[in-house]
């Protein structure tokens, strides 16, 4: 199914509804710009906000959420909030403590989704047990992972009691991760794209510009539409109101099969972020 509006959701394998489209706040510093970005997104219909402990901006995100909910006249239950446990906290007790610290900074009583940020070898299984505990106790609505490759997922699921609901990974036309996408689909794990616009590096691509011109859209809108039509959740980052609005204006056109294949053909297995099999944080 392809999302038809900004509030449309996909049902995760545990029945929780996750919006197809959200706001990412990677590297947005604490302060008025961050608070306003979150408020602006909520005002314009966004119902998903994605942050992480390592972004060091959960306090501002929380403030933006509280003010945004009030101004929009909606409740906490109308919003889907994600955060992630950082590598240095990957352990059973330390992951639970990290979750509680994130909640406190955000000023929330629960998260809709909590993710293991990176597959640190020898550590992610203990962290996953902690996430399972939080989930079973009803303290978090959904649990998942980020930056996990197929072999990480296979290894985790060998011992897991609860299967990850989401895998958030770097994904854009230069890094399509088709095998990983197929694996996640096969196992009922929702794929979510971070850095869908390749940190802006694709915005002057001639092929994408040609497709965009044909539809009267921006390159960013074409890329986000490409993700959505493949059943991938997107969380583009922006702090500017016109861009927050423009990014979400992707529900009034459709890419053809040929256009989708043309975009797929741009793949070079090129990352702008670290390699999950070889990273050092």
In words, what does this structure look like?
The chain has 281 residues and is α/β, with parallel strands linked by helices. The protein has a single domain (9-264), classed as TIM Barrel (Alpha-Beta Barrel), CATH 3.20.20. It is built from 10 helices and 10 strands. It has helices spanning 32-43, 58-72, 92-106, 124-136, 150-159, 178-186, 206-215, 219-229, 241-247, 257-264; strands at 9-11, 17-19, 23-24, 48-50, 80-85, 113-116, 143-146, 166-170, 190-194, 233-234. An 8-stranded parallel β-sheet has the order 3-4-5-6-7-8-9-10. Strands 1-2 form a two-stranded antiparallel ribbon. α2 packs across α3, α3 (92-106) packs across α4 (124-136) and α7 (206-215) crosses α8 (219-229). The protein is globular. Residues 32-267 form the NADP-dependent oxidoreductase domain.
Please outline what is shown here:
The protein is of the alpha/beta class and 281 residues long.
Q: Quote the CATH topology.
A: TIM Barrel
**Overall body shape:** globular
Could you estimate the helical fraction of the residues in percent?
A: 25-40%
Straight-line distance between termini: 37 Å
The total strand number stands at: 10
Features:
single chain; 281 residues; TIM Barrel; 8-stranded parallel β-sheet; 10 helices; 39% helix; globular; oxidoreductase; Aldo/keto reductase
Helix-strand layout with pairing:
Blueprint: E1 9-11, E2 17-19, E3 23-24, H1 32-43, E4 48-50, H2 58-72, E5 80-85, H3 92-106, E6 113-116, H4 124-136, E7 143-146, H5 150-159, E8 166-170, H6 178-186, E9 190-194, H7 206-215, H8 219-229, E10 233-234, H9 241-247, H10 257-264
Parallel strand pairs: 3-4, 4-5, 5-6, 6-7, 7-8, 8-9, 9-10
Antiparallel strand pairs: 1-2
Domain NADP-dependent oxidoreductase: 32-267
Family: Belongs to the aldo/keto reductase family.
Active site: 55
């Amino acid at each position: 199914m392809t999302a038809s509006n900004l509030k449309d959701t996909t049902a995760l394998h545990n029945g929780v509804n996750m919006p197809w489209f959200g706001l990412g706040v990677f590297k947005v510093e604490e302060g008025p710009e961050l608070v306003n970005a979150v408020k602006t997104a909520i005002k314009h219909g966004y119902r998903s906000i994605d942050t992480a402990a390592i972004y060091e901006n959960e306090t501002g995100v929380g403030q933006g959420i509280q003010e945004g909910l009030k101004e929009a006249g909606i409740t906490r239950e109308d919003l889907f909030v994600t955060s992630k446990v950082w590598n240095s906290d990957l352990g059973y007790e330390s992951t639970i403590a990290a979750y509680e610290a994130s909640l406190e900074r955000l000023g929330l009583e629960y998260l809709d989704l909590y993710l293991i940020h990176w597959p640190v070898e020898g550590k992610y299984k203990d962290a996953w047990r902690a996430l399972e505990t939080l989930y079973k106790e009803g303290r978090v609505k959904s649990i998942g992972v980020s930056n996990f490759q197929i072999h990480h997922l296979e290894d985790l699921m060998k011992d897991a009691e609860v299967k990850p609901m989401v895998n958030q990974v770097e994904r854009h036309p230069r890094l399509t991760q088709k095998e990983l996408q197929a694996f996640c689909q096969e196992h009922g794990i929702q794929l979510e794209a971070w850095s869908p616009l390749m940190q802006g590096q694709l915005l002057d691509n001639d092929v994408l510009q040609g497709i965009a011109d044909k539809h009267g859209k921006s390159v960013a809108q074409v890329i986000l539409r490409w993700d959505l039509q493949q059943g991938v959740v997107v969380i583009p980052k922006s702090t500017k109101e016109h861009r927050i609005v423009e990014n979400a204006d992707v529900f009034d056109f459709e890419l053809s099969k040929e256009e989708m294949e043309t975009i797929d053909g741009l793949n070079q297995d090129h990352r702008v972020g670290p390699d999950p099999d070889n990273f050092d944080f």
